[in-house]
Write a structure and sequence with these properties.
Rossmann fold, eight-stranded mixed β-sheet, two-stranded antiparallel sheet, disordered N terminus
């Protein structure tokens, strides 16, 4: 099995046209393909994708340059906080705002930003893959379906439309990569939550693909580890139930149930959580002031929701750091780098297991 994420049809940089061959849903008229030079970052505006402020957004793509793994594709969700009321969205600004378009992408310094996907490292399991990076400017874990109005010296709209952005993007992705062999849906921080919450949508789109989930620093802690008031606000202001409830009705009270739900629905897929034990950003956002309590909740999540499954594993490191993929070639646990661990995950190596506990 090849390593990486979404298979490029026939090994071409941007996939062939014509009828779908993967058995997935069809929209009738073919959507435009995402076109870019192989091995080069290209920003593409995608109609229907918008930021919180109503400005248009899109995606950055880097089609496979050819060689090993060039039939794979990574879909990666960027992070950037979250917000759910007037204070968090407009006073504390706990989520990144739009605009996010070509200018913002180019200013981000794509080569350093995309270090986890560096093609120059032979140890990088994603080096031969095509890559789609989904920016984040909706404050809703890429899972919102609502334009909320908050009172900040008068009414102010906030477009929590991350899920609608994904739905606008997917026809373009499947028009470009028509018959994926291996799809890895990944993300960091808010993007880690987004990868998890949107995973079933990608799985339904590519039913014949070999698929994996990589959630980097996006742990859905058990019960009120994600505070009840915050969860209620996500359901009210983002309309999170539109995404979650069709999959997992019990998740309204405990979002960690999404993990066994996904593994039960997709028992052949491999899924991973990457985390530090005392992630300080997770503690701050979810009102867990003591690092020791963050660790207790993280260990409980892994023991109760991940360990009992046959196809979900965790890569765990000590300390309070937030996100691991950016140091995949240097961060170690269980005597191996994260890149080695991810390689074992994607090749189906029998030695792939939870490490760091």
């Amino acid at each position: 099995m090849s390593i990486g994420v979404v298979l490029l049809a026939s090994g071409l940089a941007c996939g062939g046209g014509g009828a779908r061959s993967d058995g997935g849903p069809s929209d009738g008229a073919a959507a435009p393909r995402l076109s870019g030079a192989p091995g080069v970052w290209t920003w593409i505006d995608v109609p229907g994708m918008t930021c919180d402020d109503g400005t248009p957004t899109g995606v950055a793509i880097n089609p496979a340059p050819g060689g090993p793994g060039d039939l794979d594709l990574v879909v990666y969700f960027m992070g950037g906080g979250a917000c759910w009321d007037a204070s968090t969205c407009f006073v504390l600004n706990t989520a990144v705002h739009g605009p996010y378009g070509r200018a913002q992408w180019e200013a981000s310094g794509a080569p350093s930003f995309a270090h986890p996907f560096d093609r120059a490292r032979a140890s990088n399991p994603f080096r031969g893959a095509s890559i789609v990076i989904v920016p984040y400017c909706t404050g809703d874990f890429h899972a919102g379906n609502n334009v909320a109005t908050y009172d900040v010296l008068g009414p102010r709209p906030y477009r929590h439309v991350g899920r609608l952005n994904v739905e606008a993007l997917l026809p373009r992705v499947r028009a470009t990569w028509q018959a994926p062999e291996h799809v890895v849906v990944a993300g960091s921080s808010a993007g880690g939550f987004g990868a998890t919450l949107n995973y079933a949508l990608f799985r339904d789109t590519f039913p014949r693909a070999d698929m994996s989930l990589v959630s980097d620093a996006g742990p859905m802690l058990e019960g009120d580890g994600l505070p009840a008031a915050e969860r209620a606000a996500w359901y009210a202001m983002w309309h999170l139930g539109d995404v979650v409830d069709p999959l997992c009705a019990g998740c309204a009270a405990d979002l960690s149930l999404m993990y066994p739900t996904l593994t039960t629905r997709h028992p052949l897929d491999r899924m991973a959580l990457l985390t530090s034990l005392q992630d300080e950003v997770i503690g701050a956002y979810f009102l867990i002031p003591l690092a020791a309590d963050v660790e207790l909740r993280m260990r409980a999540l892994i023991a109760d929701r991940i360990a009992p499954t046959a196809n979900f594993r965790a890569f765990v490191i000590p300390g309070t750091s937030h996100t691991l993929l950016g140091g995949a070639d240097t961060i170690t646990s269980g005597g191996m780098t994260l890149e080695t661990w991810l390689s074992r995950m994607h090749t189906g190596d029998a030695s792939w297991m939870t490490v760091g506990l």
